[in-house]
Amino acid sequence: MQNILVKNLIVDFDVLNNDGNVISKKRAIDDVSLTINEGEFVCVVGRNGSGKSTLAKCLNALILPSSGDVIINGLNTKDENNTIDIRRQIGMAFQNPDNQIVASIVEEDIAFGMENLGISSEIMDERIDESLDSLGIKELRYSLTSKLSGGQKQKVSIAGILAMKSKILILDEPTSMIDKNGRNDLLDRVKKLNKEENITIILISHYIDEISYADRVIVLNNGKVTMDDTPKNIVLRQKELSESGIILPYIPRLATVLRDNGKNLKGNEFTAEELCQFLK
Amino acid sequence: MSILEVKNIKYKYDKYNESSKYALNDVSFSIDESEFTALIGESGSGKSTLISHLNGLYRADSGDILFKGKSIYDKDFNLTNLRFKCGIVFQYPEYQLFSETVLEDVAFGAIKKGLSKDEAYKKSLEVLKMLGIDHLKDETPFNLSGGEKRKVAFAGVFVMDPDILIFDEPDAGLDPVSKDQFYKLLKMLNQKYKTTIIYITHNLDDVIEYANKVIVLKEGTVLKEGKPYEVLTDKEIMSKANLDMPYAVEIYYELLKLGRKIDISKLKFDELKETLIGLK
Amino acid sequence: MIRDITLGQYYKTESVIHTLDPRVKLMATLVFLISLFISTNIFAYILATVFLLAVIYLCNVPFLFIIRGLKSLLVLLFISIIFNVFLTPGETIFSFGPLSITKEGLIIATKMAIRLVYLVIGSSILTLTTTPSKLTDGLEKGLSFLNVFKIPVAEIALMMSIALRFIPILIEEVDKIMKAQMSRGADFEKGSIIEKAKSLIPLLVPLFVSSFRRANDLAYAMESRCYSNANNRTKLKPLKYKRIDYITYLILLLFIILIFITRYIKIDIRVF
């Protein structure tokens, strides 16, 4: 079953001069076509300005195509009547944890999306517990959002999306403002949601290390999809990666060098344990 | 000779509340001239609070800080002058940029330091050239990319000719390529101009690569300080500090498990690579 | 410095005051403020003090935390006292040169000071014990009659609650920007008024830039969570009056009646 269908998507932004007049167009997304199926865990990588965030915002109708189509479960984002339906199915968590939390108390923030959908307070009450539980932060229900760590704030945002019963989760660089422990912890949770609740995950990232969580990696450069492969395969295509401005993660990088020096390694090892296999 | 000595400083934010925790609790360490020091620790361990003490932005509740042997808390010590000598670049460049052009913005600190406008602009231009962004001098700083903004913010501090450069998470939000460039620049400044560098980071692999000293903080106290390979390979300290080990250290221990003991002081990427290539 | 502002901050703890319906608390604050301005003699002030102390005792927020908000008010307080003490005409108690302190001036200054301090403490308690969203829920429901006049009460209420939520974040941000600029030699304290105003530019520009970015991000986040029209929304916790709320309304009624009664107690102020 198809979840997300992107056909020849082009997005142009206006470039304004100081007087606010349009002087030129800047192409952010340049003829992208792809499909993402239910239950996939896709990681979209690319350097700053490659168009990854723009692509993400196209998927839930925050940005509309200049040409081409984005179709979510049969609903075209171009049709305004579909907007709310699409956003109910696709939840999105953003980079800055502070700028996406609406309420002062965790449960109130999680309720925000459901309140917008007109869900009754009894059902909300249940779903808040459920969604917090599936992220392992049940104890935070009555906490002040301003007192949470960056990682906890991101989890609250994701819980708010789960509570709306969204089946697709877009994470737009969710870890860039949280420390490494928080990062691993968050992505472990996300992986669990993907495996156990069959939530489709689209992770936008500039931490190349994070591709190891995904089943599929899409590389963007200058608004174009330059690569689309599994993590294990993609790290073997080092030359193409560096053309897209991406440096291999530490261990695959080391493994590649060792392989090129005649060691018995493939070059797509991701853990220290796998790397040291060549000594056996 | 030590350029900076921190002696038993204590600091708490909530001074009204007797039972509130100290953000810094008896912190002592010293920094030698032209050292390249990484300050690590989980979120909330006091790293940012600590660097704000080093140029006198915060005043410790007790304890002392010596800059080149003189207490910065002495009545006749010139704190404004210290700010020029101890340049801090904070995490978000957006918090620093305010002028109409990049050149003007960079010159701000130099003018505050007492240079004439012409001198300040000349000097700013030199710094921009050194960073390879002199073509941006007439742009407005707000339209730059994240990496460029960061360079401008850095230029704005560097133009004051500081003896010590202090950074709060200089790599957060940078893509791997820009990050590499940035660290190489720091290394160059450190080696060529003997600039003392102190920086906060979560990226421990880079600490091994670039720093020659590490200080680990936990709940406002120094857990350990020393050479990167001494500190980062200390399992007990790392788990106490709630930090994940860098990949190089993981590989070191993995090799140890396989009965191969390699030189612990050679964990930089290239050194590790050579060692591994040499292993049969 | 800047962290001392307590207005708009919620203090999380458990107390009777915290559990009250926000409409009751809004009404109580209003009644209290009115009582301050119609108080004419010492009895009214004693009554208001007792009322305030009772609330402070009941709300379970540390006293020092409550009065922290006064710190930012000291300058204003000082100016108003100076003006009143020296510029009120009347019976001179003490004079040097052209300046003279009058008895009336002293009385008015004291009244003003008490009013100002009580006003700040009273409204601080409201925000300290009520989460911004409850507060705005209360306003929304309490003012819903304005809908008749096509005033978008729900939207305004949501805007307010978001504004309140961002106060602590903005305060922290100002702190960070100040630190960044002070590290480049900026000085926000020295100089004449014009110089001071000029020195604020490096502070205000980044603050505006970042606020606009936050607003933009937040709008995206809200939209992607299906926000479209504030009127069709349901509420996680619809407001409902409890017994304690009705009791509080009664106490408030009693309080305001007592305040009115004090107006008719004739008393010669010189006794005190």
Question: Could you characterize the architecture of this molecule?
Answer:
The complex is a heterotrimer of chains A (280), B (280) and C (272). Chain A is α/β, with parallel strands linked by helices and 280 residues long. Chain A has a single domain (2-234), classed as Rossmann fold (3-Layer(aba) Sandwich). Helix content of chain A is 35%, strand content 25%. Chain A has ten helices and ten strands. Chain A has helices at residues 52-59, 83-89, 106-116, 121-134, 150-163, 180-197, 231-234, 238-243, 250-260, 272-275; strands at 2-16, 22-37, 41-45, 67-72, 75-76, 90-93, 168-172, 200-205, 216-221, 224-229. A six-stranded mixed sheet of chain A has the order 6-7-8-3-9-10, sandwiched between helices. In chain A, strands 2-1-4-5 form a four-stranded antiparallel sheet. The radius of gyration of chain A is 20 Å and the shape is globular. Chain A starts with a strand and ends in a 5-residue tail after the last helix. The model of chain A has no long low-confidence stretch (mean pLDDT 91). In chain B, helix 3 packs parallel to helix 5 (146-158). Chain B has 280 residues and is an alpha/beta fold. Chain C has 272 residues and is mainly α. Chain C has two domains: 1-130 and 241-272, no CATH class; 153-237, no CATH class. In chain C, 65% of the residues lie in helices and 3% in strands. Chain C contains eleven helices and two strands, in the order αααααββαααααα. The A-C interface holds A 57, 60, 62, 84, 87-88, 90-92, 94, 96, 98-105, 107-108, 111-121, 124-125, 128, 144-146, 157, 160-161, 164 and C 10, 12, 131-133, 161-162, 164-165, 168-169, 213-214, 217-218, 220-228, 232-238.
Number of helices of chain C: 11
Largest sheet of chain B: 6 strands, mixed
Describe the strand arrangement of the main beta sheet of chain B, using strand numbers. 6-7-8-3-9-10
Uncertain ranges of chain B: none
- Structural class assignment of chain C: mainly alpha
Helix content of chain C: 55-70%
Overall mean pLDDT of chain B stands at 91
Q: Please give the alpha-carbon distance between the first and last residues of chain C.
A: 38 Å
